[in-house]
TrEMBL record:
Belongs to the CpxP/Spy family. It is found in: Periplasm. This is Protein refolding chaperone Spy/CpxP family. Its main location: periplasm. InterPro entries: Cpx_auxiliary_protein, LTXXQ. It comes from Hydrocarboniphaga daqingensis. Residues 25-35 have a biased composition (Basic and acidic residues). The keyword Calcium does not apply. The lineage of its organism: Bacteria, Pseudomonadati, Pseudomonadota, Gammaproteobacteria, Nevskiales. GO terms for cellular component: outer membrane-bounded periplasmic space. It holds the Pfam family LTXXQ. The keyword Signal applies. Residues 1-22 form the signal peptide. Residues 18-39 are annotated as: Disordered.
Amino acid sequence: MRRTLITTSLLLGLTLSGAASAGPDHGRDGREHGPGRGMPLMRELRELDLSDEQRAQIKQLAQATHQQSQTQRDALAELHHRFTLATPGSSEFRALTTQLADAESTQARQRVTAMAELRTQIDALLTPAQRTQLATELAKMPPPDEREHRRR
């Protein structure tokens, strides 16, 4: 009896987990993961009539920004891992708590600064008409609270 119950429970669990993972994989904004994701500015830039040269330059700028931030993300992930493994209450745990809080704060500041720099560099590549069109496209974006509801 007990063996049957355990077997049935395992089969049911496997069936349900398979069904859950078989559904579409959606990103934070409700779109599927894969190419074409990125910060809202990048999606709005697709609506502009960019020249091939502008597209190539923007792609190069975005890739450079991504590569720079990847190193920071990797270091932060390592710090998170060490923090997770540390024993609460130990001196190492307290030290890692401070390090992690400082690193998170620094990374957030660097991320915002890098995004602002990227936007400035992209803006310099656009014509006045494209800047106007981009501003119009960005104005169409729903406020953050409405975007949050769409993600769920």
